[in-house]
## 1
Amino acid sequence: MLAFIACCCLLFVGCGSIPAPVSSRTPPPSQKINYHIVGQGDTLFAIAWRYELSVESLARANALSRPYNINIGQRLSLDMGRVRYASEKSTQRKALPVTTKKSRPPARAARAENRQPVVSKIKVYDLPKGQWHWQWPVKGVVSRHYDNNRTFKGLNVQSKPGRVVGAAAPGVVVYAGRGLRGYGQLLIIKHSETYLSAYAHNRRMYVSEGQRVKAGEKISEVGGDPENNGRLYFEIRKNGKPVDPIRLLPRL
């Protein structure tokens, strides 16, 4: 009898050491980013693109009015669920401190006091009117497609390095630069209040921000990787969110 009781005790102790099933554990906290600090060269379009937001919704969340001025060091809320409660104070914050007179000679301190943060303004663009249609930006073979799970948000089009890239639709260039990591030389064109298109990894760009372009107009050249394999990364966004370009482009 004593032996039976001892066995039962050992059995209960063993069960108590078994870890809880994975499904019953509390998941780790979300890694969602709730704000962005404006840096040198940032524009509202670039920030909105990075976080898959529309410029209009980002502006509303931060109580920004046209021309959407932003300052270096300014903290921008990315919480679209609190648009009504965005603080206007955040739009007026300046991060570059003024140097006091004690730290520098009078002449240099005066110059420091007059220093202003670099301000980025969004121009009011005259967008295309009337109907328009999408067209392929470059001749080539699609080597990677948009993923419905959004692990890949556009198309990779294999093409010859240096081949001309055309605008996929009429619009206005709202971004031209390499300030967004992973895109190389990037162009973003605004076609309407709903649609944007992006052209990444360009070798050379022929247009600048604020320039109007026609459908098919030459905007850049296809870039190449270290092995001289040319490719263009092409993306379309609707209300700030990536969509499958194949559903909008004509059949090849």
## 2
Amino acid sequence: IKTVGFVKYDEDQLRHIHPRVAGWVEKLYVKAAGDPVKKGQPLYDIYSPELVNAQEEWILATDRKNKRLIKAAEYRLEALRLPKSALKRLKKTRQVMQRVTMYAPQSGVLDNLAIREGNYIKPGTSLMSIGTLKQVWVEAEVFERQAAQVAIGQPVTMNLDFLPGKDWLGKVDYIYPTLDTKTRTLRVRLRFDNENDALKPNMFAQVIIHSQSSDTSLVVPSEAVIRSGNMDRVVLALGEGRFKAVKVKIGRLDDEYTEILSGLDAGTRVVSSAQFLLDSESSKTSDFKRMDHKMDHDSMKPAKPEAMDHNNMENMNPKNNEQSE
């Protein structure tokens, strides 16, 4: 199944930075989305009256030597995400910090930077995100008629315009549960290892999903199928310049081959480029009287039952193999 998609961060490894307290950003250590950051690197300083009060409560509890109050005060500081280094300093100096530095929870690339120095922030505000590029997702779409051919774990091949000739190997990671009501397509998520961080978010990708089936199916070239609103047909090559259109029931299909469920027998010769034989009037008739009888013999191919193996389909050369898979 051939389709296209876009590279995204692996959201399983994407960390969103949210404050637990309200306050003001006194200093911002990172400047722009796309900057690399390392785990433990300072991100921003915050002045928060709530954090100041929580520190004062801890000092008051230790002055009273009340273990229960001390433990409760420490739990509150941890719940407000006071860094461990700041708590250690508080215990050592017993001095309240007006400005508290917040640090990066992981190494990666900065994304969605939404604050500036002097901004007032509140709990739940998304300040920034940090994503890793060791693995990436690719969001792709398949047509509704192809959805049944896609399964989690199937191998995927991908190539990109920025590095022609190089293929990335991945797999189908997730199939979304709903279709797009406008495009009638189903979203699928693909996962790829990203050696040397070569793949960047938002890159355009060309994708082949290698679906397989162990059952034997009758298939014809997809261009041999004439699809109309209420029926699907193929044109039979009867010999001596005679042709006949027959109604067929189709099943699975991709860019090259279409499965025939009924209406056609194995070995029957069909016109592989039937669409070019029609005009607006002849497409409405069953006998195709206006077809050109001087057709090239190479455009007639026999239908043949074979396994629907899309991996092999991609490697077939139509010029060397006149039989449909």
## 3
Amino acid sequence: MFMIRLMFVLLVIAAMVLFGMYLLSSEKKYLHYFKQTLKYTLFFAVVVAVLFVLRRILYA
């Protein structure tokens, strides 16, 4: 559980840094990296949620 929280915190920090870099430099590559980070963070969250649901169903 700690590792999952740590991953989420690190992904949020990375996303905010990328978005800040985009705002400061106005280069589109940072916005693209920000969108990719956001997409993979949401994908990771869905996978973790599905695994938690499967765990509840299988071990209940």
## 4
Amino acid sequence: MTTEQQTSLEKKIEELKGSLTGDMFQDMDTRDQIHNLEMQLKGVKPMDSHIDCIGCGS
């Protein structure tokens, strides 16, 4: 991941965090987006994800 991509993800995360209302139910989708972006930023994937196996052909 390039520095520009990293900066872009960090900026998007901050924008989303700024839009949180404090209402758990209303913020659920936004928090999910934040979580997914943070996972991309850290290079983490879900435990049950088998995309790598399909993607690499193994």
